[in-house]
């Protein structure tokens, strides 16, 4: 049975990818995020725009494509997200 | 002795409810998770319920000295706790709690006006018991899937709260026995067990939302 992921869980996975999976250009490509976070391109574009406008992600311009990396406030959010994901897991619930 | 234990139980319940509710609310403010918002409402309601009961027992012990808590205060406290247990059960995607028929829904509230506070309190306690058993089973299923020890503690805690309620009913049948004291001790154990996840929160490592 496939697990239903909440919006916040998807955001957590995107930020986690953009924090730990950065390349030599200090960013992550959209293709890489799509593969790691298992999300469609259309949906990812909307979420990425929101995350950039909220200051959780930074857009890094390189020659060929846009790359993304987690900002400092994004990293703080990621720490809080992981902590409270554990907390809601303790109650048998999904964050 | 029973009165003293009741006050201890309700103060522990107040503390656990407010602490878990506050941590969940901080989590909600930092992540925007609706699940954490529901947990915070649940535990604030449970904490406030225990607080109301504690106030009732303390008022009677020090001022009224009737030997029993005021039924109105008691019903209010139990009602608040039931709301909290409902939110825990609701978070486990309880879907068909209320009858679907409009007629049944319209007459569903009538018994509340026809029966005394004592009956309402017993009905609420019965509903709480069902919700606690439901919550305990769902949490236990989550433990089986994830094998997290703290999840098991929460499941055991909810189960103990339900079991304590169940034992409490027997004290109506067999009054003046040790069953009532036993039920209170079981509930205190349950509350402590439910509060264990709070100890896992590394509060110093999180920079909380400045707007809080």
Automatic annotation (TrEMBL), chain A:
Residues in ArnR1-like winged helix-turn-helix domain copies: 5-87
The protein's name: MarR family transcriptional regulator
Lineage per the UniProt record: Archaea, Nitrososphaerota, Marine Group I
UniProtKB/TrEMBL annotation, chain B:
Keyword Transmembrane helix among UniProt keywords: yes
Ranges annotated as spanning the membrane: 7-28, 35-59, 71-91, 126-144, 151-172, 178-198
Top-level taxonomic group: Archaea
Entry keyword set: Membrane, Transmembrane, Transmembrane helix
Full protein name: Uncharacterized protein
Organism: Marine Group I thaumarchaeote
